[in-house]
Structure formats: C-alpha cells, structure tokens
Design brief:
The chain is mostly helical. It is built from 16 helices and no strands.
C-alpha cells in the first residue's frame, strides 16, 4: 500500500511538470515574452502604416482621372476616365507578373535575375538585415511582410504609367496606350528602378531619391514626352500662322477637386516611403516638408502666371501645386521646412515657364504632365544635393550635385530612348493615333461608343 501511494504521489508531481513545461518556461522568461510581444506589435504597426499609405497613393488614381478629364474637352471624358481606370488594372498584373521581381530581385547591379515572376522568390519577411533570407535583399531594411512591400511599390509603379496618360490625351488609340502602359510597368520602370531602389549601380554611387522624383515622376515624364513627340499635336492646337490656340479644359471643378485629392494622396506617397513607423519623427518631418512645398508651389505659380499671363490662371495654380509636390518628393526627408518652401516656390515658377516653353516648341501636352513630372522631377532630384543636410531624420549622407545629375541623365537617357523606340514600333505596327474625323468628333464615341454627357448638346471643337 505504501508503494502504491508513492506511485500516486510521483504521478501527481511529475506529470504536471511535463504538461505545463511550456508555460513554466514562458513564466520563467517574462523578458523574452515581452520582447516577442513588442516585436509583433512593431511589425503590425509598420505594416498597417505601409498599407494605409499605399491606399492613399492608390486613391491618387481618382485625382489623376479628375485632373486629366477636367483639363480636356468634354468629348473625350469617357476615354480619359477609361484610360485612368484601366491603367491600374494593367499595372497590377504587369508588376505582379514581372515588374516587382525585375526591380527588387537579387542579381547584378544592372539587372535583377532572381525572383522575377509572380512574387515567387524565396523570402522570409518581415525579417530584416542579417536575419533576412530571400532573393529580395534590397528590401530587407523594412520589417513588413512581402505582400505589404509589394502593394506599396505597386501603387508607385502605376503612378508612373498614369503620368503618361495626360501627355497623350485626346488623340491616342486606347489599345496603344494600354500596351505601352503594360510594357512601361513590366520592364522600363522596374529596370531603372532596380538601379536606384533595387540596390543597383546608381544607388552605389550615393544617388538619393527618397520617394521618387526621378524613379517615378521623371521616368513617367520621359515616357510621356516621347509619346507626345511621336503622336504630334492635337488638331487646331498650333495654327499655320504660328499662333497657339488654347484648347480649354471643360471642367475646372473636376481639375481642382482632383488636385486636392492628389495633394492628400501625397501624404501617403512621401511619408509612406519610410515603410515603417519608427518613433514618428521621419514621418512627421516628411509630411511637413511635403505640405509646405505644395503650398509654396501653388503661391509661386499664381504670382508667376499673374505676371506673365496677366491673370491668376487656375490651371497654372493647380499645376503649381502638383509641381511643388513632385519637387519635394526626392528631398523631403533630408531638407528643412525652409528649404522645402524654396524648393516648392522654384517648382511653381518652373512649371509655368515649362508649360509655355513646350507650347513654343510645339510639343502638345494637354495637362502639362511633362512640365509637372519631368521638369520638376529633375529639379527636385537636384535639390537633394543643394538643400540636403547631414543629421536629417533620414540619416543619410547628402550626395553631390554631380552624382544626382549623373543619375538623372542615366535614367532619363535610357527611359526616353527606349520609350521613343517603343512608341515608333507601336506606330508602325498598327498606329497609335486616332483618325482626324474621330479626333474632331471626340474619342468617347469613336473609341468607346459612349458619351460622358449624353443629355447635353455640346458642340465639338476642332
């Protein structure tokens, strides 16, 4: 009997030790449990911020659609809305299929060769630094899941394609624009993006572009400029006697609302490029510099237009705001608010002069996309070296102006040349411009068989 009670006592004491061994270990190491909880919370907060910022950038598609359709003639509204809508769908597929891998996959400093297709490469995100194991090592600095990284970069890629839409508006065939957009996002944009954000050879030189004045905006601007050149001007824009005939936008309410949406979206575009919350200082700094630059862009373009055109032209005011936003995109994390004001003001002046310049050399850009995104994208990238300061929240070394200029020329030269060739190939393959009769009557009926305002009898303008 005594032996029996000993056996019972043994079971009562030893078995629970095995059953609750894990809990005992956890209780015995509360510091580790706290560290794990903090790590999980950090990843969750960073992921939430990246996704919300990406959603704000996605909403910029609405802004672009409203701005472009508002600046265009009413007879082309359906066509422009369709282009701005479908471009994100095309960008999503092309960037998922190959663009992401080509941009961020490991490989050489010039070309990615691993993890190219359908997010199929090895990856153990949100692990960072030396703990990261995968083929997208250029993104191992941000501790968020792979899909969060992909979504945020996708909305950037789609922005580059959307920029092109405005410059070729009111005379391009719908299918030609769709094909070009697919190729741009799948190959051209990620190819040069790899050079900078994918750990490529331009980033190794010290080139700095925090949120994409060059990587996104100038690339879209170069592609847009090539398209505008190959397409030629809209009918009636440049008269035989050399005069320029303004083709007025049909809905400035739409354009103004779209610009405000874009301004809001930029609070995801620039601050979201931190791809993490941290202590909030970098995010806060970037939001302030972004907003100040936009405001000064609006003010400077107002004054400049008032002086040159004798009126505070609303179109110039809206483009001046966007110019300030594009100009601050590269330097937003490494310049002071005062410098941001100067960058925005210069952007506002530049965009007015640039719009007038492109008109003078007979390059027709209905919404001023090349002036806003290309010209001010170049300016913003140079401003990094001019106004950047050591000890900024971004904690990066300020590059020289020659380094920035070298990156601008390399990316611009490649993008413009390849885009020009691609537009010519599309032109030879099946044409990229609608017929003259269709252009005069409007692309809405010719391309889509629909009207934006069917209840109104609006005379088509040539």
């Amino acid at each position: 009997m005594k032996q029996y009670f000993k056996s019972i006592a043994f079971l009562l004491l030893v078995v629970p030790m095995f059953l609750f061994a894990d809990d005992a270990a956890t209780v015995a190491n509360p510091a580790q449990e706290t560290a794990n909880a903090i790590q999980t919370l950090t990843v969750g907060l960073d992921t939430l911020w990246v996704l919300v910022a990406g959603m704000l950038v996605f909403f910029m598609n609405a802004g672009f659609a409203l701005v472009e359709s508002g600046f265009a003639q009413s007879k082309n509204t359906v066509n422009i809305l369709a282009k701005n809508f479908i471009v994100f769908a095309a960008a999503t597929f092309s960037y998922w299929a190959i663009g992401w891998g080509l941009m961020f996959g490991d490989g050489s400093p010039f070309l990615a060769t691993e993890g190219l297709f359908f997010l199929g490469g090895a990856d153990n995100s949100p692990a960072i630094g030396d703990a990261y194991q995968g083929v997208y090592s250029s993104m191992n600095w941000t501790g968020v899941p792979l899909f969060a990284k992909f979504f945020f970069q996708l909305v950037f890629a789609a922005t580059a394609a959307t920029i092109v839409s405005g410059a070729v508006a009111e005379r391009i065939k719908f299918h030609s624009f769709l094909i070009f957009s697919f190729i741009l996002v799948a190959f051209l944009y990620p190819f040069t993006g790899h050079w900078v954000w994918g750990g490529g050879w331009i980033s190794a030189l010290g080139f700095h572009d925090f949120a994409g004045s060059t990587v996104v905006h100038s690339v879209g601007g170069w592609a847009a400029l090539a398209g505008a050149i190959v397409l030629g001007a809209r009918k009636g824009k440049f008269l035989p006697d050399g005069r320029i005939k303004p083709i007025l936008g049909h809905n400035m309410t739409s354009a103004a609302l779209g610009t405000l949406i874009l301004w809001l979206g930029w609070f995801g575009f620039n601050p979201g490029s931190t791809m993490g919350v941290g202590d909030g200082s970098t995010m806060s700094h970037v939001i302030v510099t972004t907003n100040i630059s936009a405001a000064l862009g609006a003010l400077a373009s107002t004054v400049t237009a008032w002086i040159i055109l004798k009126k505070p032209d609303l179109g110039m005011i809206l483009n001046g705001t966007l110019a300030g936003l594009v100009g601050i995109t590269a330097p937003c994390a490494i310049v002071s608010p005062t410098s941001a004001a100067i960058i925005g003001a210069v952007s506002g002046v530049l965009v007015v002069l640039s719009v007038l310049f492109f008109d003078k050399i007979k390059i027709d850009d209905p919404v001023g996309a090349t002036s806003v995104h290309l010209v001010c994208g170049i300016w913003g990238t140079l401003a990094v070296a001019i106004f950047g300061y050591e000890g900024s929240p971004a904690g990066v070394e300020v590059p020289s102006i020659l380094t920035q200029l070298y990156g601008i020329l390399a990316i611009g030269g490649f993008t413009f040349t390849v885009s020009l060739v691609l537009w010519f190939v599309l032109k030879l393959a099946g044409g990229i411009r609608v017929g003259e009769e269709e252009e005069l009557s409007g692309l809405d009926l010719g391309e889509h068989g629909a009207e934006a305002y069917p209840d109104f009898n609006i005379r088509a303008r040539g």
